[in-house]
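ingest -> fold -> write
write: protein_1
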Amino acid sequence: MKKVIMAGMMLWSASTQVLADAATDLQQKLSALGRFSADFTQQVYDESGEPMQTAEGSMQLARPDRFRWHTTSPDESLIVSDGTDVWMYDPFVEQVSIVPLEQAVQNTPFLLISGGDKARWQNYRISEQNDTYVVTSKDPAELIQRFTLRFNNQGRLARFTVVESGGQRSEFTLSEFNTSPELAANAFRFTPPAGVMVDDQR
């Protein structure tokens, strides 16, 4: 019995070490991407795996915690983080919601890519295989249950996938990756246009 218990403890310890190493490796890869810009295409699938919608746009990132995600088609939307707060703007309904960064991370996992706070990663389990990292939420109530990131042989983020708790999946493919982008001074700030309804949740 003691041998069985010891073997179980050794397996648990080894498994924990592998997960810890995967988390460290992922954070190091993301930290190496201090700032970048890229175009993206998004394919959305329903819970049964059937294609629902295709979208495209661009993203800009500067660590820590500054992020700009601009969807241009089929409908325009914008997510901007200045490192403290996050603006989520929908031009179609003429509304912008403002939430604290920590609250936004729970439902907008893209922000983990730009995050500089290692404590946030404590809420996720991370595994790795062949430069693909699977980030799984420890909170069953969280909207995003799984987040997969894939890097190419240059260490650049090439693809990522978001799986929601209901089973809907979004696959993102990045192109035109630039590790030295010229970023506008106001790239990570958002000023609501005149007449837009502001939902400030800070």
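write: protein_2
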Amino acid sequence: MRPSGRELSEMRAVSIETGVTKHAEGSCLIRMGDTHVLCTATLEDRVPPFIKGSGLGWVTAEYGMLPRSTTSRMRREAAVGKQGGRTVEIQRLIGRSLRAGVDRVALGERQITIDCDVIQADGGTRCASITGGWVALRLAVNKLMKAGDVISDPLISPVAAVSCGIYAGQPVLDLDYPEDSEAGVDGNFVLRGDGSLIEVQMSAEGTVFSRDQMGELLDLAQKGVSELVAAQAGATA
């Protein structure tokens, strides 16, 4: 029995509310159970120096957790004076995941920055950030298309992510914090809407796993991502 009472292949309740900020070109508040992340997209007519003049667009991301997104207060990284290694790793993951669903030629020489701010954390914050980040990106690109600033849709596929793991000896979908903290195997799966894999992060946290078990977790991830893609479509329709 999972602590939440969910079935092994059951996602947490997912909701995506769009248009939650006034100024961003795209925004949403994604809730995956008790994990809540605010995602905003900012359009800029510039690109990083390393691709300037190439005609290619760029999608990047920043990620952060608010001080009371967890059970005890965390210091703001700005107060410490630098980002932690976990933060840097997660925002790089978000950026390269979203770029996998973008035709950068069609986007043109402009940058879209996705900001992901964790309001409340209960496991799977990077997965929620990727999933909600794509919604914010979709909304920002819709504005570009409506204004006639791009000729064809630069988004070639939705991108979503979900965690899977082995908890109490069983493969489970969409780990919340009580499961994540005790899972024998923990994994994050990033996929495109067509089922193509973008990134898989898996590690043994207390027990090893077999190739068959990895296949079971991938099957669960594909099921979960298909549900998330449907939620994205509903939010951006």
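write: annotation protein_2
The beta strands are 14-18, 26-32, 35-44, 58-65, 111-120, 159-167, 170-173, 185-192, 197-204.
The mean pLDDT is 97.
pipeline exit 0
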